[in-house]
Amino acid sequence: MRITQARVIVTCPGRNFVTLKIVTDEGVTGVGDATLNGRELAVAAYLTEHVVPALIGRDPARIEDTWQYLYKGAYWRRGPVTMSAIAAVDTALWDIKGKVAGLPVYQLLGGRSREGVTVYGHANAPDTESVLSEISAYVDRGYRAVRVQTGIPGLESTYGVSGGTAFYEPADAAVPTENVWSTAHYLEHVPSVFARVREEFGPTLKLLHDVHHRLTPIEAARLGRSLEPYALTWIEDPVPAELPEGFRLIRQHTTTPIAVGEVFNTIWDCQQLITEQLIDYIRTTVVHAGGITHLRRIFDLAALYHVRSGSHGATDLSPVCMAAALHVDLAIPNFGLQEYMRHTDETDGVFPHSYHFADGYLHPGEEPGLGVDIDEELAGRYPYRPASLPVNRLRDGTMHSW
Ligand code: CS2
Ligand code: MG
């Protein structure tokens, strides 16, 4: 079998997605997600100009060799653009391998290690009282874990709180929207949210919270300690993750578990955090961390250090990524949680898939391969629309992490 074509498909069914479709001379095709929120065309160009020409004529069965070729052969290694492009190729080749074998990909990864993939949804609302009904809606749908984000009194907007729609999409303008942030207002408010949520829902519902890179280590230590009475499953991205040593300071002060990794692209990005046990969950995902092949390496390293998976699964990761993630989630021994921000009907129409939600679990389905595809005719009806993630400033205008 040989690769004869690889199409880079950019579509915007409500938000932008980049998909790679690899075609072989025996008619078997595979798909991979290459979406990088706000930088979609950079990955599309990298694929079109620097990857696709080298794929034509290759044996699609050689997944590892192709990964090594694209990684070591690039010279300029790592980074979100390069690794998202490699991820798309890798994911599509696993899709093809499953179809050729007549097996769902999770069977190629060692088979089922659990009955289903426990997912968490996003409850978000402008204030504490209104977030309670959002949480109830997830509990009523059978979710066992819920991420909780609310507005911050005194701030016009904050991360994770949508304008009243169920689908939170932060890339809301071609030129970045400017948000304003106050750590003092945030640290003052968040503990009261979880005190109220625990009062309403009791001690066992898994609760998560995304700090979204906005604190210093000592501020994160204060937040973690203030949330200890509410036993969160994790606080996520407490600080910008460029300084692994900073997490030692957080660990010295609090037992609140930490989840990090959605912005990481390789095992080297998270190696120190894992081997020093500075985190409890690693959130790397198929589309941004080099595909199924590399993600398994990260999770295998994590398993040696009691670190569990908690893969990113926002709406800006396409159903192709979600499908691939579920096959990995089902098979690995150290699965923790899978984020699942449901896509819109428009998006689901472009990406028909076999994964489905039942009794609090997502199931990838039993179709050979990944169980997902792209309807290229329908995708063609949704042209790309420039959209950037916001930027964040402090009240005095100082640039801050968004
Ligand atoms: C967030 C994301 O889902 C999460 O945990 O961090 O919504 C993130 O902000 C977006 O994926 C960025 O595109
Ligand atoms: Mg996050």
UniProtKB/TrEMBL annotation:
**What InterPro entries does the annotation carry?**
D-mannonate_dehydratase-like (IPR034589), DgoD-like (IPR034593), Enolase-like_C_sf (IPR036849), Enolase-like_N (IPR029017), Enolase_C-like (IPR029065), Mandel_Rmase/mucon_lact_enz_CS (IPR018110), Mandelate_racemase_C (IPR013342), Mandelate_racemase_N_dom (IPR013341)
Enumerate the Gene3D superfamilies for this protein.
Enolase-like C-terminal domain (3.20.20.120), Enolase-like, N-terminal domain (3.30.390.10)
Q: Which GO terms describe its molecular function?
A: magnesium ion binding; mannonate dehydratase activity
GO BP, one example?
A: amino acid catabolic process
Record domain Mandelate racemase/muconate lactonizing enzyme C-terminal: where: 128-257
Q: Name one Pfam family in it.
A: MR_MLE_N
State the protein's name. Answer: D-galactonate dehydratase family protein
Q: Which organism is it from?
A: Actinoplanes aureus
Q: What is the lineage of its organism?
A: Bacteria, Bacillati, Actinomycetota, Actinomycetes, Micromonosporales
